[in-house]
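Hey team,

Filing this mostly as a record. A colleague (T.K.) asked me to run one chain through the structure pipeline before their review meeting, and I want the input and output archived in the tracker in case anyone asks later how it was produced. No errors, nothing strange. Just documentation.

Input sequence:
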Amino acid sequence: MFDFSAPLFWYKLVFAAELMIAEILAVYTLKKKRNFALRASLCVAGIFMFAFLYPLLSYSAWYSTLMFFIFLVITVIGLVICFNESIINLIFCAIIAYTVQHISYETYSLVSLLADFESINVYMPQGADSVTEFTAVSISVYFIIYAVIYWFVWAFVEVRIRSRKELVLNNSYLLVWAAVTVVIDILFSAIVTYADNGRGSETVTIIFTCSNIVA
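Output structure:
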């Protein structure tokens, strides 16, 4: 339940931070509620606490899918507490943020595979199949990839959100499509991660590419 030696246990906190940063870049210009700083501080602390306490009862694609989906829902609740926007608008922004985080993670995983440097297999329990140390190269590549992708989406995609005084989504089908895409994306990513043992780099490259296309 609380396996402190498992990479996935600590990656929950990293994922929460990555997702919240991506959400901040998407929503920071939206209308804020009173006492925003206090609300935001409590929500961030609460999300990190939730991530820390979330139990690891299984190392499987289905359990990981459920976990990451729940984390997304919790951050949406935090956005609702902090921002004076419709829940549809906030869900849409959260979906954009999750997609950015997912593409960044998949890109980093692919680069680490092709460049053949150490990166932690966060989905597995501690053991012979898990690499337990980051290197200076892997850490540097991690920050560069995430920074570039987050900046690109902020500068060229989310600029439309920032340019509007009021965010209005008129097409409900767009939101439904985006939500279904994220669910499929989370599930597909987890299945790919647990199924890639023993595959060659060419096969895994194709799988990672397809995963990012789904996003």
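Quick notes for T.K.: The two ends are 30 Å apart (CA to CA). The longest helix spans residues 87-115.
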